Amino acid sequence: MKRIKHKKLWLSLSAVTLLVFVIFIGAGCYFFKMACVPGPKSFLSSSSNKLKKSDPLYKEKLWFKKINKQKWYINSADNRYQLDANYIPKSGSNKTVIVLPGYMDTKEDMGEYDALFHELGYNTLTPDPRSQGKSEGKYIGYGWPEKDDIKKWIDLVLEKNGAKQQIVVYGLSMGAATAMMVSGLKLPHQVRAFIEDCGYTSVKDEIEHEAQVLYNMPAFPRFPLVEILSGINRIKVGYFMNDGSSVNQLHKNQRPMLFIHGDRDTFVPTKMVYTNYSATRGPKKLWVTPNSKHAKSFADHPKLYRQKIGDFLSQYVK
Fold this sequence. Notes:
- The chain is an alpha/beta fold and 318 residues long.
- Helix content is 44%, strand content 16%.
- Strand 5 (166-172), helix 5 and strand 6 (191-197) form a beta-alpha-beta unit.
- The longest helix is centred in the first third of the chain and has 35 residues, at 2-36.
- The radius of gyration is 22 Å and the shape is elongated.
């Protein structure tokens, strides 16, 4: 009789364990789709393409809408996807900024930044990240696979514009994390500086933060759910989320970097910029913009934003 009871108990525990396992795997797949598969996202605010004169960046956006854009293409670093970019030349310039969009943004969403750098005397190359805009791809990589794509864009700039070209990498949000991840790669000497605006410390840190803030998820089941999500990401995208670290890449960086972050950023919390800033090994400047939410520093402080970037770059790009 006791053996029968023990067997029933063991079977019940096994069934419960299996059920919990299946539930967590299912939840991990759901959150992977929400976080890493391109498509409409309920947690992102919708943006209108309609220009309004009340927009503090109206002039820049209007310029971008009217300016002629060249199309540049490369294959992704793993040769699986064709990637698409806008190139806007500045007559007589030997300086190029590679402008990196944020999560689910496209090169068309970065027009005001193209305008800013064009006004400062730079050519601009603005790629759609893999799986965003006109670029091919299946998954959003949060900057880690994209960093190797950016290295190929850098090589293309030098191939087309010549070895005397000076290159700056600028990124916003996910693009900022991508820029920081790029900074730890072995790069041509023509890459002179980096600018990151509101990038995260690592992919895992950002996913943990989103789970907590967007879904009100406590420590359990956030652990082990994020670990399961990371495992799915390893199978689908090719890396564990903790490997996608801006901080680790910044430890390898010796080039100048300007860090910008809004002090009211809750999507990528402001505290992350201090960790990133401490990690880099090159010359650096930090500007925490007052009263600015995520990716709003330029719109909130257009004159000062332009001045801070212009002053920083003038020290390193001649």
